[in-house]
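Translate structure to sequence.
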């Protein structure tokens, strides 16, 4: 089952008991379904939970049933149809719309005066025309309707509810969408799907933790690469000094630092400082190794007197 199907399954669990909310949810379903016209209502869904909810929802909201239902035990896409004129008129009347004069659909905000009804309307819109991507992959929730005016008016409704959706057009449909985990989680919480909201936030936390670990690994790897590179440069300098002057020509502090590096070619400066006898600070050991590298350059240039100035 997809993440979107799981979200719709959770939204379909509560019974549509309150009539005003049943009407509001049905309103959202109709404005975001496949066909809502004076001649026909056609709702097509692949969600078995939504398919089970629809007959109860319309019975509670309008006191009527569908003219055509999916066959018993049907799988895949299921179609619910109303074509009887008396039923269509009753539905239009419930939303304060003139069935004979409706050229385009608009949201009648008078049907959605209560907070619970606004949430029910958005729940119906998502059940009929919404989808959400698995948050483990990416964050994307959208509501699609063929009615541009409805989409614009739904934006106003969502703004009143504290949301700021983006808008676009795709394949003749008007889309509202969210691309942030927090907004998607709040959206599901507000329309009655707290488990889905929690799953979105859990996926966000998991992603952030993985990203943090990856950054730390990359940082540690970069630091390790720097340590190895620096150690190799120091070893090269020590070999050049040993070849030209011999390490016995170095003062004891520099000679000890050189021998310590030879014995511990992959150790960090901090580790080398602790291994020194007696222990020295990291900055002190760094200064000695830099001095060795300077002397190596001078030795190769033939400056034999450099050792006397140490």
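Result:
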């Amino acid at each position: 089952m997809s993440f979107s199907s799981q979200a719709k399954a959770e939204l379909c669990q509560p019974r549509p008991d309150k009539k005003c909310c049943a009407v509001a949810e049905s309103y959202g379903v109709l404005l975001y379904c496949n066909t809502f016209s004076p001649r026909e209502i056609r709702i097509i869904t692949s969600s078995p939970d939504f398919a089970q909810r629809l007959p109860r929802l319309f019975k509670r909201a309008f006191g009527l049933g569908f003219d055509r239902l999916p066959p018993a035990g049907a799988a895949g896409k299921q179609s619910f149809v109303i074509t009887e004129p008396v039923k269509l008129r009753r539905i239009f009347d419930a939303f304060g719309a003139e069935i004979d004069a409706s050229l385009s659909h608009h949201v009648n905000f008078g049907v959605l005066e209560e907070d619970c009804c606004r949430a029910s309307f958005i729940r119906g819109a998502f059940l009929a025309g919404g989808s959400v991507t698995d948050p483990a992959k990416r964050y994307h929730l959208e509501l699609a309707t063929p009615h541009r005016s409805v989409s614009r008016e739904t934006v106003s409704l969502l703004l009143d509810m504290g949301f700021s959706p983006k808008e676009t057009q795709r394949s003749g449909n008007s889309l509202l969408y969210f691309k942030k985990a927090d907004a998607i989680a709040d959206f599901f919480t507000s329309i009655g799907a707290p488990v889905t909201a929690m799953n979105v936030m859990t996926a966000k936390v998991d992603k952030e933790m993985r990203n943090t670990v990856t950054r730390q690994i990359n940082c540690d790897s970069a630091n390790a690469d720097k340590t190895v590179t620096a150690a190799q440069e120091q070893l090269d300098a020590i070999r050049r000094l040993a070849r030209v002057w011999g390490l016995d020509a170095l003062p004891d502090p520099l000679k000890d630092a050189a021998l310590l590096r030879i014995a511990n070619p992959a150790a960090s400066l901090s580790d080398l400082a602790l291994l020194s006898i007696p222990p020295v600070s990291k900055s002190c050991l760094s200064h000695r190794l830099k001095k060795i590298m300077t002397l190596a350059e001078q030795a190769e240039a033939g400056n034999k007197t450099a050792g006397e100035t140490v």
